[in-house]
Amino acid sequence: MASESESSPPSPGDVAARRESGTSREALLWCMLALAFSPVLFDLVAHYAERPSVAYGALFIALFAWEAIRSPRGEARPALGLGLVAAGLAMELVFAKVGWIRFARPGLALGMIGLASLRGSATPQLCLLALFAVPIPSFAFGVLQPLLRPAATLWTRLLAGVGAPLEIGRTGEVFTPDASLALSSYDTGAPLAVLIAGLCLYAGVRGRWPLSRIAVRAALLCPLALPVQLVALGLALWALASGSPELARATLGVGPWLACSAVGGWLILRRGRVEPVR
Length: 278
Description:
278 residues; mainly alpha; 66% helix; elongated
């Protein structure tokens, strides 16, 4: 006959200790994955420093790892998970060998999805979130670049009314007698729309929304990127006219996505997480 101590359920302290131990092990696995994909991560950091407008990719890497660790376990798929991690590492090795490490970025997303599959937390919504860690190439935003010149013209005329010495060059840059601000396809608001779509997806991961609801929410909110970017452009040109080109570049490149991330994150966290029915 089993003793009373053997048949009694574990105490809340034991359950918490086991959960904390499991979380620590999973965090270690994510650190090992980051080490394995360090060439891709270093390239991403260099890209973020060069183009701050797409630095939000680091946010989605962290959000994916956090949700993969904290989400309740489902059915683990070790064969699929190991296969995806191996495919991602193979992609990294091949492109690193030929010197095209930037093309290995999808391999990082595969590795992230694979590790989540090993744990059993790789829902379709979470898998899609991993794709937002990979910056979209700039040529995808080029269709909106013709909008930059009329927007910059509008702001230069408005700021000229308060004595701001701004002019627009032939190639689209805005300059003063002492400094200039080059505008590119990254400043069109398209990267900001991608960020908003990713935040809608993250809200769906936490709220366990169906993909259709996430798509509708993203379609409604992504157009807000254009007015937000337009305001950021005006603030950047005002900073340029005030003699602060570094502040102008930061306002245009980092300000919009930091502001949207802060507001979106606050709204998402305020709603809380919806746990699955057991």
